[in-house]
């Protein structure tokens, strides 16, 4: 039994991406600092956060270090979810924000510090630190000022970094203007964002779990 199979045997929730809920059985990745399982698309989003916030590794393809393996053993998707519920944040509220705001939040920072302390047997911190300007999530430009990347210049999806081809076609995220593939912008977002008031395509980085709002 490999490490991923052991994770899933311990808790079925470890077989799905913490961010989007997709099955991770084919290509499981992990965020080292949070010890959670991610799909390959969401791992591409986490890669843009910087290694001090979320360092991603392939559970099956990479050779995990002793520390990374130990983090998976003491962490996992259910553990992070339980922490959010205990702290009053709640998993649903945490996942209802954009991916950047989730992991640049004070609650995510606290979990990272608690997990690191737990690994070395230290005292678990309980203080919520204010975010430094360096760690603050990037501000989004108004839709009217977004410059869409020309399709022909985009050779790879700007989220998962896979090459575009006749099957993996280009799409534009209506929020950030990046060229992304279909798996990285799986469905339209029904949140009205002026001046766009009709459903429009958003990448998983901008809206991780788009849903229809009445």
From TrEMBL:
Q: Which SMART domains match?
A: ArfGap (SM00105), FYVE (SM00064)
GO annotation (BP), single: COPI coating of Golgi vesicle
**Domain (Arf-GAP) ranges:** 1-115
| Entry keyword Membrane | no
Which UniProt keywords are given for this protein, alphabetically ordered?
A: GTPase activation, Metal-binding, Zinc, Zinc-finger
Which cellular component terms (GO) are annotated to the entry?
A: Golgi membrane
Task: Tell whether tRNA processing is among the UniProt keywords.
Answer: no
Coiled-coil blocks = none
Taxonomic superkingdom: Eukaryota
Against PROSITE patterns, the record matches this protein to: ARFGAP, ZF_FYVE
Q: Which GO terms describe its molecular function?
A: GTPase activator activity; zinc ion binding
One Pfam family recorded for the sequence: ArfGap
List residues of the FYVE-type domain.
151-211
Q: Which PANTHER family match?
A: ADP-RIBOSYLATION FACTOR GTPASE ACTIVATING PROTEIN 3, ISOFORM H (PTHR45686:SF4), ADP-RIBOSYLATION FACTOR GTPASE ACTIVATING PROTEIN 3, ISOFORM H-RELATED (PTHR45686)
Would you tell me the protein name for this molecule? FYVE-type domain-containing protein
Origin organism of this chain? Chrysophaeum taylorii
